[in-house]
Amino acid sequence: MTSAAGTAPVSVVIPCYRCSTTIGRAVESILRQTLKPAEIILVDDASEDGTLAVLQQLAGLHHGWIRVLQLDMNHGAASARNAGWEAASQPYIAFLDSDDSWHPEKLRIQYEYMLGNPDVAISGHRCIWLRNGELQPDLPQTPAATKISAISLIFRNSFSTPSVMLKRNIPFRFPDKKRYGEDVSLWQQIAFSGLPVVRLEYPLAYVHKALYGDGGLSAQLWKMEKGELDNFIALYRSRKINGLLFVAATGFSLAKYIKRLVATNINRVLAALR
Question: Is residue 212 in some structural domain?
Fold first, then answer.
């Protein structure tokens, strides 16, 4: 099933906020796909800088293939992704962040898997930190597909947003205006509803900065932690998890936070001593 020769019925949604220097790399990684998406939706989250002009320039270069949505107020990536989701015309949606990129085979591999496994509502894959000058890694010849349980998503985010492809018509969305932990909150909603969730063991997405504590911002780590704790509260209040599991998840999460905080502060001290 393809929407046109050489394309897949996939809408790529990218939330954009003050990303004029990185969005070109993200879009270029889509242009290099061996199986291209039917459309790209760039959602400007009220950037208040030169981002919108860059997005419009990209749309002009690829008229009819790249669309730009402009939001009046900044509410964060979750709301921007939801806006792109609602505007999407294709049955599958893939998410990419404006400062990340994809392997050229990403859409082909993931779409073919989703097409061959129609019961799967959402799939992700491995995402790695690609430092400056590093080459994209070779792909495994026979990768595995791992089923992700709802319980496991309480203790670990099994995949990041730039790795995700899902069915457009599932009855869930990112928590609107939630800025931290919004991605795993959606994965948890889907998994606890009973819909199949899968991770493909391919390194098909790349971040270009450290995942935690980049710049040594301890306050940012706490916001991320609070977002995760809020997810547990929502699951408990909706009776998706019981009290014992809520306490276990909260304790485990706080232990991870302390470990990350200590590591970040040690790295900050070491950097100052260099």
Answer: no
